[in-house]
Amino acid sequence: MKIYNWRPFLDRWSADWIDSPGVEGREDAAEEIVRDRWLGFAPAGDERIAALEERLGAELPPSYRSFLAVTDGWRPAGTAVGLLGTVDGVHWHKGAELQEWYESALDEESSDDEVLRAGMRGRALRLSVASDGTDLLLDPGDVDADGEWAAYLHRAGSGELPVRYASFLDLMQALFRDFHRSNAGPEFVNATTRELDTAVEEARVACLAGDDIDARLDVFEDAAEHGRPGAAGFRDELTALLDGRPGGGEGGGLLPYEPEGPFRRAVDTAREQARWGDTDGAWRTLATAVGTWEPYGSERIAPVGLLADPILGPVITPERGRYLLETPRGGGQGGGEARGPGGGQGDGQSRGEWDAAGLVSREVGLSWLADHVEQPGDYRFVLVRDVSPEEVAARVGEGPLLPPSDEADVQGRPFGPDGRPPVVVRVGSAGEGWSFAYGTVLEPFASGRLNDPGERASRGTEAVTIWVERGDTSAGRPGVFYLSCAEDGRRVYGFAVRGDEIEEWGEVPEALDPEELFPGAEVPEGYEEPGAPEEGPAPVALDVDDEYEALDAVTETFGVALPQLALRRGRLHAVATGPWIAAR
């Protein structure tokens, strides 16, 4: 059985409360509390504890039993609970009606926690003897390997669910933090606040040196729960970067990040790279320069503003956020080797190698588009050789270059005067020497009426157009994989696989032979689709393996790649185009 040394913790709590401003003269500051500097009582003694267990018909959990051996109850003065845990005052909650009501709301999708919480209502031991609508409960139906009962804090009338703690000890520590948090202020100074503030400052300096970020996060979290100034801000910065999303005060606005000093130049360069789809290049620029980042006084420890930048925010994945935090910056001196090309870190993996996991996204090729979970929709794109993204936009577009947009922005544009959905593509770099224009499919493929933008985009160069529809046999829509290569304004070769039919023109390279890439495009034996047309391809969905192999073959043949991170999460310049399918 664990031994719980309650006395030092309870002595600290008593001293912090008695020494807090305004205690003298308060109703809850009884004379004996101030005199003895003790919020507790005399120990309950073994006989009274045994009598309590006999009355309850249960053996008490270790942390509560050892608590009673130190004090028969507690007066957490200044909180919503005036008295808790006395031998004579604790009793079974007797909330059978509440239990029945909460259990009636459970269903097959209810979590284990919800089931436990609902059942707890009718079997819990109530510890709060005197309180302002706050219940403290121990659940004998939720016991860990050490015999500890789960503990709950429930503020009735708050609309919040009961908060679960692993044990009575954890509950008491939470009440102590709540006491500190509710009294935090310039005049609230004691041994605990001084220790916490010292720990926060040491953790701040260590964070700038990139030292043991997870341990520093624990320090900030603990200090924030005690209400210490600045701790919550530091915690929010770390968690935001570790989560790869805006947090704290930086995430509300999506404004360009404009740091001071040398890091500003890296941010400007990276933003220019990212807005054309080179997210890996943008990341390398930021990661190489992060050591030059400087905090704004003592209130910042990391470049968390990157996350709120509409262009650079998607570049910072959780792995990259950790890399930024673990790199010495702002004058911090870390104990490890330097980061960046040629540097390393003694964790079994050379973090200085730019192909290390998480540092670059390994956005090689096109085959990631065949992931039907991450990329569920149909898509189409044009790849153009030796032409800039701006020029591609001019060649395929009908209007000005639009500001950087994500997929939601593109899909949310209003319909045109003809009632047809707008055709908008995003543009960027597609590997060395290539640019792209990419969009989702808004109109079904029709080869006889196809207005392939790759043909006009290929003037003086080469362009490749890909159109992919996964198909849906239940809706009578066959899968489609269309590839066309154009040179200097005219179609040279290509193919269209639609259902179980293959249309081919020109001399298709052997590596792109559609009969080799799509061997599974066959009609199932005896297949009859109700309402299917008598002529034309049968509604056979596109096989995901065939789609993957075809995209991989295009990658190998042309040496192209689409930026997965930029297209899925990022914001790229866009341009409106004319319909890819001519009206009837």
What does this protein structure show overall?
The protein has 584 residues and is α+β, with helices and mostly antiparallel strands. Helix content is 32%, strand content 16%. Helix 9 crosses helix 10 and helix 11 packs antiparallel against helix 12. About 7% of the residues have low confidence.
Entry keywords:
584 residues, alpha+beta, nine-stranded antiparallel β-sheet, five-stranded antiparallel β-sheet, 16 strands, 32% helix
Distance between the termini: 82 Å
What would you report as the Rg, rounded to the nearest angstrom?
A: 33 Å
- What does the average pLDDT come to? 84
| Total number of beta strands | 16
Instruction: Bin the strand percentage.
Output: 15-25%
- Principal-axes geometry comes out as elongated
> Tally the helices: what do you get?
19
Name the poorly predicted regions: 247-252, 334-357, 523-534
Describe the strand arrangement of the main beta sheet, using strand numbers: 9-16-10-11-8-12-13-14-15
What percentage of residues falls in helices of 4 or more residues?
25-40%
Which structural category do the helix and sheet elements fall into?
A: alpha+beta
**Describe the biggest sheet?**
9 strands, antiparallel
